[in-house]
Amino acid sequence: MKATPERNLNNHSENGLSTESKEKLNLLKADVIATRKVGRLERIIGKETYRILKGLVTTPTSIIGLVLIALFVIIALAAPVIAPPIPGTNPYSMPRDGYSAQPKPPMSEWKSGTPPIPFWYTALTGREEWVHLMGTSSNAYDIFYGVVWGTRTALKTGVIIEIATLIIGILVGSISAYYGGVVDNIIMRIVDIFMTLPFILAALILAAVLMPVLGRSTLPSVIALIVFGWMSYARLIRGDILAVKERDYVLAARVIGVRNSKILFKHIIPNAIFPTLVMASMDIGTYVLNFAALSFLGIGTEVGYSDWGQILSFARDWITQLGTYWYIVVYPGITLILFVLGWNLLGDAVRDVMDPRIRKMQEASSSSES
Amino acid sequence: MTTYIIRRILLVPLLLLGVTIIIFGMLQFLQPAERAALYIRDIPKNPEALESVIRTYGLDKPIYIQYWNWLVGQKNPNTGEIHGGILRGDFGYSRVGAEPVIDMIKHRFPATLELAIWAIIPIIVVGVWLGIQAAINHNKFIDQFARVFSIIGYSFPAFVFGLLVLMIFYANLKWFPPGRLSNWVIAEINSGSFKTYTNLMTIDALINGRLDVLWDALRHLILPVITLSYISWATFLRITRSSMLETLNQDYMTTAKAKGISTKVAIKKHALPNALIPVVTISGFTVVSLLGGVVITETIFNFPGIGSAAANAASQLDVVTVLGFALFNGVILILANLVADILYALVDPRIRLSTN
Q1: One domain, residues B214 and B302
Q2: Which of B42, B72, B90 is the last residue of a domain?
Q3: What b/e string do you get for A106-128 counting C-beta neighbours within 10 Å, with b at 16 or more?
Q4: How far is A281 from chain B (nearest CA, A)?
Q5: Is the residue at B11 inside a domain?
Q6: Contact B317 A212 (CB under 8 A)
Q7: Closest residue in A to B315 (Cα–Cα)
Q8: How far is Cα B287 from Cα B69, in angstroms, rounded to an integer?
Q9: Cα-flanking dihedrals φ and ψ of residue A335, to 5°?
Q10: Which of B43, B68, B90 is the last residue of a domain?
């Protein structure tokens, strides 16, 4: 990907330029070579973005994070291949092996209601009968199926909540910051009020009151987490915009009579929100965690829906026998932790790369060491 | 600073109004018949009686009248008694608890308070200590360790951690059981041979001079305290570390070292007081969230506090009860945030000395 700068510059200088400009170009070339090699990619995407990207693919923690996230995306996309659903049923509902309340240990055989066997299983083990790879939970739901399809549920809900909270946060925060004064004051007090309510309890209540209205699905929890989740973005973006708002180009736009909404959406938001946007997008892990927490408490999806929090909630029936039925906790638990960990590792690296204060400190410490 | 404090106090009624409006708004998702639980204990099944209850308590009236009734209560024309009214401390009747919501809160609060008191000490002490060590040894082993530790802590959902801890220490080792007290202690309390004064079991055990009860109470507290601590350490570690790092890079630290004081004294005298200012805020916030009942941790360990009661009511769709708990929680939060902000102003010289 990285072309050497000499070749790049030479390509341009070949095109019949005057000697004067060739000289200038040589000077420029010397300058560039003296300081640092600039690759083609860096030119296309800009210095700052390049630095961030480079930081992300060279930090060990962010690499682990990226790999984990990629893995989960692949599992979500390939869910029908990894754990084929019974044809004609809702793929999100976990298949049941009978109706026994007692959980069955991993590798025990499917007795009834067996879904199609995935091709990789026969290829790997050479066996023809499908087993419960991770055992079954209470009421004979297959944990492996739930973990695989739960990845889809997690990514879907996480992304939806993320996008919705960001949009609300950006709108509220930017309107508040741009108009300032009374509008700003009123909006920020509303944000204060929303932040006063204890988050998980408030989300729990809203999901609980929405459940009879909307029925049991992912929707009540998703809506509840959106309604009580946008405030911190609004605050962040308000801060960013307040900083950008004072720049000269905004004043210039106002002087030549550009409409308020156009200044806001064309000039301020694009320049103010990029860092916040990137940092915020790492919150998907937290949203999935909160969604799972609500499911764990028995709010949200219908019984048997592939959803990590719900499988974990089955473990609550077996607290005294968790030593025997460890697999109800361990498999979905570790999956959830790895998912959240992936986003947090990446988010941590992004924060480090983008935070100018930390950057300054690192530069200071590395220069003092050398 | 006086202006700051006055302005901050004036904000309280506004926040209270806002919180009541949001909670009242969520109540509107319920049918009028369900909302009758705000005023009476037994909601009649028979449609005519139900109709008269709805009329008596104005559940079909315009929304602002209903809001007002909800705040101050509504007189029953037949008996002349006033029912409901959150300003009178009447949050309605709990279907799950089969008692008034406010009584349920009173019964449950001591357990939550006790858990909060025991949890906050290890949370702050260990979290802050780790943060300071990580900052002082910037980029050395302990810093890297603390970093990994805190990322994993952030990623560990309380309910997975709690279940794993229960699996190891209760199901396998049988050391620490869930719940709050063993059955024999409960039996002694019911028979009156063990007197409760404060309802904080560890303190009552000491007053009664019963070490066996104290041990029993502690055995039940250990797992939830560990869970809460592990989840919160990450936050404390991170905030202390970054605040400490920032302080260590300040010019006055260089000056202090240039004067010839040892690094240890420089850190203790000059860095720590300033670095710990943000920790004060986050500590206040943590205490408050613990007092509001930690929904998930209490639920896993079957700890009979406010949080588990709210979760239980929510899963049985007893919305009036959950909203009562949320209101209680919101009020605590607002008042405690006020205290924390004023403390912050007193601690931070930049605010304390400002005349504006």
Answers
A1: yes
A2: B90
A3: beeebeeeebeebeebeeeeeee
A4: 16
A5: no
A6: yes
A7: A298
A8: 33
A9: -60, -45
A10: B90
Q: B26–A344: do the CB atoms touch at under 8 Å?
A: no
Closest-CA residue of A relative to B289 is A198
pLDDT digits (tens, 9 = 90+) for B45-93: 777 777 777 777 777 778 888 888 888 777 777 776 777 777 877 788 8
Q: Is residue B2 part of a domain?
A: no
- Determine what percent of chain A falls in helix, strand and coil, rounding each to the nearest 5: 75, 5, 25
ipTM of the complex: 0.84
Residue of B nearest to A295 (CA): B315
Query: What is the distance in angstroms between the CA of the first residue and the CA of the last residue of chain A?
Result: 30
* A340, two tokens: 């959240």
CA–CA dist A77, A148 (Å, integer): 10
**CA atoms B43, B46, B48, B49: torsion sign:** negative
User: Per the CB < 8 Å rule, is A192 touching B326?
Assistant: no
B148, part of any domain: yes
A210 and B29 within 8 Å at the Cβ level: the answer is: yes
In a domain, B103, yes or no: yes
Question: Is the domain of B39 the same as that of B133?
Answer: no
Same domain, B165 and B58: no
Q: Specify whether the CB–CB gap between A349 and A56 falls below 8 A.
A: yes
**pLDDT tens for each residue of A299-318:** 888 888 889 999 999 888 88
A 10 A CB-CB count for A275 gives 17
Tell me whether residues B295 and A201 touch, CB distance under 8 A. Answer: yes
Instruction: Quick: pLDDT tens for A201-220.
Output: 888 888 888 888 888 888 99
How much is the average pLDDT of B137-145?
85
Q: Which of these, B135, B137, B150, lies nearest to B245 by C-alpha position?
A: B135
B134 plus B80 within the same structural domain: no
pLDDT tens, residue by residue, B86-115: 787 778 888 887 888 888 888 888 889 889
Domains in chain B: how many in total? 2
Residues B36 and B155 in one domain: no
Q: A267 vs chain B: nearest CA distance in angstroms?
A: 33
Measured between beta carbons, the chain A residues lying within 8 angstroms of B163 are 312, 315, 322, 329, 333
Contact across the interface for B163 and A198, Cβ inside 8 Å: no
**Domain of B230, in residue numbers:** 99-353
Q: What distance in Å separates residue B202's CA from the closest CA in chain A?
A: 25
- Say which range, A41-50, A51-60, A293-302, A353-362, has the weakest mean pLDDT: A353-362
Closest-CA distance, A201 to chain B, in angstroms, reads 7
Determine the residue among A61, A63, A197, A210 to mutate to test chain B binding: the one whose Cβ has the most chain B Cβ atoms within 10 Å.
A197
Could you give the percent of chain A with pLDDT greater than 90?
22
For residue A106, the distance in angstroms to the closest alpha carbon of chain B comes to 17
pLDDT higher than threshold 60 for residue A6:
no
- Tell me, what CATH number does B149's domain have? 1.10.3720.10
- Residue A340 pLDDT greater than 60, yes or no: yes
Which of A137, A196, A331 has the most B C-beta neighbours within 10 Å, making it the best mutation to test the interface with B? A196
Asked whether residue B194 falls in the same domain as residue B276, the answer is yes
| Inter-chain CB proximity B325 and A202 less than 8 Å | no
Answer whether 0.90 is exceeded by the pTM. Answer: no
Task: Kindly state whether residues B150 and B72 are assigned to the same domain.
Answer: no
Tell me: do B36 and B165 sit in the same domain. Answer: no
Residue at token pair 């609550």:
A316
